[in-house]
């Protein structure tokens, strides 16, 4: 007889019925995680990032930026990253309810309550389900960690503290982000 607790299997329908109360609800590997609403600084940094990526990708017809959006990887894996980018040729993965496959880029802005999860199980899930590129925006360390998950999911290819270049489509235009401007305080 096993003494291990049974893991609850969340269906998408159950997940979708969770309250819209300002908290973030995610089911990762069958386990429910609830996170309080982000801090104002987190939101300001995210807003700057959304504006920059959305303007760049929109002006070049490269794809779409979504924030927030549920990402449904499979039964028991329903995540809500801070930001995702989906290239133009893959926009069919966006349905009325969510992104229903791996986005091209996923971005998480760290907070004290999510740092271990963002660096651990979420990075592992993003790699497992085919996300190509993953950024961890670390406000405390004033840097953006850039991972190419299909190459090496455990090691960032870059710790950007000055500028970060993003080329969402091979051979296409490059956006250069000024990391200190992105992470500056909003006051």
Helix/sheet category: alpha+beta
Q: What is the overall shape?
A: globular
Give the % helix: 10-25%
The CATH topology = tt1808, chain A
Ends: how far apart?
58 Å
CATH class: Alpha Beta
Main beta sheet: 6 strands, mixed
Biggest sheet strand line-up = 3-6-7-8-9-10
**What is the count of helical runs?**
5
Order of helices and strands: HEEHEEEEEHHEEEEEH
Helices and strands, with pairings:
Layout: H1 12-16, E1 24-28, E2 31-35, H2 40-59, E3 63-66, E4 71-74, E5 77-79, E6 83-87, E7 105-109, H3 115-119, H4 121-128, E8 133-138, E9 143-148, E10 158-160, E11 163-166, E12 175-178, H5 179-183
Parallel strand pairs: 7-8
Antiparallel strand pairs: 1-2, 3-6, 4-5, 6-7, 8-9, 9-10, 11-12
Textual characterization of the structure:
By secondary structure, the protein is an alpha+beta fold. The chain has one domain (38-183): tt1808, chain A (Alpha-Beta Complex). The chain is 23% helix and 29% strand. The chain has 5 helices and 12 strands. The chain has helices at 12-16, 40-59, 115-119, 121-128, 179-183; strands at residues 24-28, 31-35, 63-66, 71-74, 77-79, 83-87, 105-109, 133-138, 143-148, 158-160, 163-166, 175-178. The strands form 4 sheets. A 6-stranded mixed β-sheet has the order 3-6-7-8-9-10. The protein is globular. The termini are far apart. Mean pLDDT is 92; it is low at 1-5.
